[in-house]
């Protein structure tokens, strides 16, 4: 971590303590904040937001610099794709370039030095007999050995996808499949139960209730244009640029559906399938209290709220309101992360911001909490890139098309994930 980031985090801690002191004075004197105190609070709250953005930007810049160095300094390797399309028995649109394992091959394809019109980027790792690779998707931490592991182009792309989707950050279960046919995933709607049985009495039958959810492969696409001069400049990190642009665009599109998608020609969002854990009070425009937050926390079944994948998700405006809440002992329920890269927490669980979660309003589901490993994301066939020199011929731009097929749904409906809903009035 650079000295600049350390100084920014020190300043963040100072601002937070100043805000806490202002709020504590009001509580101790049993009064509302004065106009002067409220003005100071608003200014410091704005500075806190700006510091958060600067810290994130600085950390992202440092990571990009490390990625660029890795791209040119480490040894690359990987298998080549056969270039066969389904059912064509041979070549499709020219030869296929590869599967994303060889960065030199990728750069050559991007610059038009091969005859291929497309390039398939697929995840590495073991696929089981069903054609599925299961894993919890997270960004590797440098302190946990992340810097010692070579980063493939696929991993770099997915890292940007994760950064732009709270669902992907949260520890959702990801199913990587080679093809895109519909797969059936069992979902739990009720658990079995037991009771005391008298001697010689009949033991009642109680079976868990299961259903099925179908995970398809909805196609997401984006166009990325790069100038010929940029492609010809050998000092430019082309792989990093393409991975960043594609990952952000695809992550934003899929991330919105993973939160609020209704399942009609799109994935089912977590809000769509989650049940209401607590409803707010009336006459407050859908706002929540610290008691509401605590009740929502305990509305999630204990094993799920103790899970490492249990997180909070809400919009930025809701986070601003959450920061001001205190529990019955006068302690802030919001606790800032104390280490670089560590998330802020509420009741010991990380907080993720997602603009697709509803803002505070009457009847709005403005807070999500629960075990996000029970949300399944299906990624089919990796990411396909296609290249065109003709699409923007008059401007001398090379156009890349990135295509990803994905779906998602919550597979445990027994209380693994709950939402807070504002009162109707």
TrEMBL record:
Residue numbers spanned by region Disordered: 61-104
Places the protein is found: Virion
Stored Gene3D superfamilies: hypothetical protein PF0899 domain, Major capsid protein gp5
Domain Phage capsid-like C-terminal: 145-414
Signal sequence coordinates: none
Pfam families, alphabetized: Phage_capsid
Biased composition (Gly residues): 84-101
Extent of Basic and acidic residues compositional bias: 61-73
Major location category of this protein: virion
Source species, domain of life: Bacteria
NCBIfam families the UniProt entry points to: major_cap_HK97 (TIGR01554)
Protein name: Phage major capsid protein
């Amino acid at each position: 971590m650079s000295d600049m980031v350390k100084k920014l985090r020190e300043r963040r801690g100072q601002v937070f303590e100043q805000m806490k002191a202002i709020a504590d004075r009001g509580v101790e004197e049993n009064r509302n904040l004065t106009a002067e105190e409220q003005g100071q609070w608003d200014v410091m709250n704005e500075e806190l937001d700006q510091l958060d953005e600067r810290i994130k930007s600085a950390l992202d810049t440092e990571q990009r610099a490390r990625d660029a160095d890795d791209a040119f300094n480490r040894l690359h390797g990987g298998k080549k794709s056969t270039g066969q399309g389904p059912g064509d028995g041979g070549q499709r649109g020219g030869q296929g370039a590869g599967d994303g394992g060889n960065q030199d091959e990728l750069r050559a394809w991007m610059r038009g030095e091969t005859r291929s019109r497309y390039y398939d980027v697929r995840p590495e790792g073991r696929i089981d007999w069903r054609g599925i690779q299961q894993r919890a998707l997270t960004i590797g931490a440098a302190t946990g050995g992340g810097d010692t592991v070579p980063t493939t182009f696929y991993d770099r792309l997915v890292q940007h996808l994760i950064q732009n989707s709270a669902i992907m950050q949260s520890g959702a279960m990801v199913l990587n499949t080679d093809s895109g046919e519909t797969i059936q995933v069992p979902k739990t709607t009720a658990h079995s139960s037991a009771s005391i049985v008298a001697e010689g009495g009949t033991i009642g039958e109680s079976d868990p209730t299961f259903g099925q959810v179908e995970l398809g492969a909805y196609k997401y696409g984006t166009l990325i244009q790069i100038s010929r001069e940029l492609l010809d400049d050998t000092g430019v990190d082309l792989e990093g640029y393409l991975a960043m642009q594609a990952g952000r665009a695809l992550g934003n599109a899929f991330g919105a559906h993973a939160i609020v998608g209704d399942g009609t020609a799109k994935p089912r969002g977590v809000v769509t399938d989650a049940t209401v854990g607590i409803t707010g009070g009336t006459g407050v425009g859908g706002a929540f209290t610290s008691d509401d937050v605590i009740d929502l926390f305990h509305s999630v079944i204990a094993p799920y709220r103790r899970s490492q994948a249990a997180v909070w998700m809400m919009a930025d405006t809701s986070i601003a309101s959450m920061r001001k809440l205190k529990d019955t002992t006068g302690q802030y329920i919001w606790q800032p992360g104390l280490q670089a890269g560590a998330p802020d927490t509420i009741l010991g669980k990380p907080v993720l911001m997602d603009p697709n979660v509803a803002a505070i309003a009457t009847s709005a589901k403005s807070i999500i909490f629960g075990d996000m490993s029970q949300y399944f994301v299906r990624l089919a066939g990796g990411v396909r890139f296609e290249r065109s020199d003709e699409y923007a011929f008059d401007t001398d731009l090379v156009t890349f098309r990135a295509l990803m097929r994905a779906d998602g749904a919550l597979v445990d409906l027994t209380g693994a994930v709950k939402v807070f809903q504002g009162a109707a009035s």
